[in-house]
Write a structure and sequence with these properties.
It is built from four helices and six strands. It is of the alpha+beta class. The chain has a domain of 77 residues: 2-Layer Sandwich (Alpha-Beta Plaits). A hairpin with a 4-residue loop joins strand 2 and strand 3.
């Protein structure tokens, strides 16, 4: 098994408005990114399982080729700044991704 922290340059979270949260994953190289994209390693289902929510609460998973990045948008459990919110900026919500493990398998060598 491979941890996401082994193949990502950046793993972060932030608010996407008061009711939504964005998770950003920037992968280290094109070959790993292509493996993630072609296998759908980060998907609505995998994020939902990781965060303990329904797949309906994961609004989108976007693979952005030029940056070798994956952007996930999901509903916040508690709106930003509402009573009970412990992370107004959404900056600590990426932590479940830090422990995310997956089967990477063979990754093709980078071209170029």
């Amino acid at each position: 098994m491979t941890k996401l922290t082994e193949v990502a340059r950046v793993i972060r979270s932030k608010n996407a408005g008061p009711y939504e949260l964005t998770l950003d994953i920037l992968l280290k190289d094109a070959a790993v990114y292509e493996t993630f994209r072609s296998r759908g390693i980060i998907s609505r289902a995998s994020v939902a399982a990781l965060y303990g929510v329904s797949a309906n609460e994961v609004m989108s998973v976007i693979y952005f080729d030029p940056a070798h990045a994956i952007k996930v948008t999901m509903k916040r459990r508690i709106p930003s700044g509402a009573p009970g919110d412990t992370d107004v900026y959404g900056a600590q919500q990426h932590m479940p991704l830090v422990d995310f493990e997956f089967e990477l398998g063979d990754v093709p060598a980078e071209r170029g």
